[in-house]
Write a structure and sequence with these properties.
The protein has 77 residues and is mostly helical. It has one domain. Helix 1 runs antiparallel to helix 2. The two termini are 29 Å apart.
Length: 77
């Protein structure tokens, strides 16, 4: 369980960094400065988030009792 929490925290941290990077790219574009390297960095950051999300999903599915006793929507009949 601690590992999945660390991955979730890292995803949240990376999402904040992505927002800052997007803001910086907009500023560069408004100033007429080339932003290709900043956009490449942004793509690497997004790829890292995808990797972390896949790891989070894998860890979540490995947990014992994951979704045990649940029916779609959380309803029990």
């Amino acid at each position: 369980m601690p590992r999945i929490n660390a991955v979730r925290a890292e995803i949240a941290h990376m999402r904040r960094q992505v927002q800052r990077q997007r803001k910086e790219i907009r500023q560069l574009q408004r100033a007429g400065i080339a932003s290709a390297s900043a956009e490449a960095l942004l793509q690497r950051m997004l790829n890292k988030i995808d990797e972390l999300r896949a790891e989070r999903d894998r860890l979540k599915s490995e947990r014992p009792g994951h979704n045990k006793g649940r029916v779609l929507g959380g309803w029990r009949w």
